[in-house]
């Protein structure tokens, strides 16, 4: 738990010396504008990269060559409290010096940045890393991200994202821990601990900004930024708990979501930002808008103009305005006219100052040096963790006849552009990444001295046939480009594209076993690929150590242990698809009048929690006992195969009746155990009774009652362990 110090009297003293304009200045986060070839903001440039108007390489080039306008006159005048998108020590220190030495009150700046899955040492994308089901790992990679980012002058990251995401069409499913409530909470809390450490004033601690509050992952039809319309019961049971877990873990900042909930945009939602976050959950950190989100309330149609949007936002509890200039341009008038009471402005500025005090910025405004930056980025020990994380994130989806691991003498032909594309390995949101840092599959194969050849995307039919004929197995690297997931990257068809499927079909038609390695940022609907392949390895976007980690798995140096944290549908039309659904009155079945599709199965292609290993596990002795502190669940897990391994043991419940319908399964606990070949371990879970409560029709929290079934096993289709009558 994070160490808390009391800065209230210092905050009040400082506020009493500040003019209205200076207070408003503290609420202004600005991004550098680029001057030169492009006269656009950093935000717009990011957008251009994400929607494919420019490549990541072009983005990098522009960022390094274009002159940046940091609005230094505004800074000197005390009209800027924070920057977004400054990610190098020299610039951060230069701007900080202006703030400290040249503004009237010398209040230090706060630097925020999107450090989503590592800074320079890019780790697997969050959806991938969640498949490790390992809070210690999540914390460790978060710690490394903080060490690197703070060395580059960053004080706060816009992460973790804990938006429960059940619609694989939504591109941002890649940025969180998948579809489950409990997992998102555990993942988010671990990241908060990793980013912040136990003392935010340390030079290598970085404030966590939890996002996107709330329910951003539930946008209609999986379309980014889209409306969210859901019952309050569902919001409280399925969407809010992960944000609360992060607040409880001590997260010092929160970012409201772009979307509206039941007609009210989160940016101006007082109920969310004051009643729930501050009053009910006791949060006293800083609330910062998403980029331009306050101004976008005009587009939502909730405010007639930016001034009205600014008024609504600050009254609702939004402290800082990210790059929309609504506060800096409109708040002064609103305060002077009395439409926004000055104490509301004081509270908002106080929240910003508190975070700056907690980060130790008043005592040590320069938390880094160019030397520290140079000595910290991409250290070999960080790369080692990136490799460990990528290995643990990998999910073995299919492995017919134990075709994997490859034997040393196996002759391999490697196909697919993604096998050689270093820059694609980082996935979405890797702003501090460099393509040259990444190890591709081709490089990793070359380094191993195996018998292999690469047949690149330009190879003609004859070359492909020749490669196939002279090889024992065909490995195809296919999936999504990193631009196909992340922000503003929803897809209406989540299959592997036609060109890549043609390649897979061709390879399969040779009769040689095809091993598919998937690079992607979301679950894919790939039933045909599944049929054609002998093995499927889900590598996601694995980060800088991609090739090495994949080869570790393909060659059997390590045993895969990852398990899916998001359901893979069999068809896009099944989306949203998730394991914790309710039953309906006519659960899908054989007869016509049941809840199903005419042209697609109701089962997923790969269920939540699923993942294979090079060994096998047997679950025996499942038992359930009601005790005073909760339901105790016992199971013995034996490694029945020939290799040591790690198994993720999962415990689900089903409340058979309730005052409102209950999900058919809910994950209640999990653990990862290592088992030597032949070894057996006993696992115990305790499900506290309090964890069974839910909301009735009147929104009263009611305790669980009636029969509860408990399932324990290696995925969400785990077998019944027993039941308890409450
Ligand atoms: C927009 C995204 O929604 C948010 O997640 C991100 O942190 C901000 N832009 C800042 O780049």
Question: How would you describe this protein?
Answer:
It is a single chain. Strand 19 (617-627) and strand 20 (630-639) form a beta hairpin. With 726 residues, this protein is α/β, with parallel strands linked by helices. The longest helix has 17 residues, at 135-151. The protein contains 23 helices and 27 strands. The chain is 31% helix and 19% strand. The mean pLDDT is 96. Among the domains are: 7-32 and 70-109 and 306-378, Glycoside hydrolase, family 3, N-terminal domain (TIM Barrel, Alpha-Beta Barrel), CATH 3.20.20; 35-69, no CATH class; 388-574, Rossmann fold, CATH 3.40.50.1700; 617-725, Immunoglobulin-like (Sandwich). An eight-stranded parallel beta sheet has the order 11-8-7-6-5-4-1-12. It has a six-stranded mixed beta sheet with strand order 13-18-17-16-14-15, with helices on both faces. Helix 2 (20-26) packs antiparallel against helix 15, helix 8 runs antiparallel to helix 18 (380-393) and helix 18 (380-393) packs across helix 23 (546-554). The protein binds 1-deoxynojirimycin. 1-deoxynojirimycin (NOJ) binds next to loops.
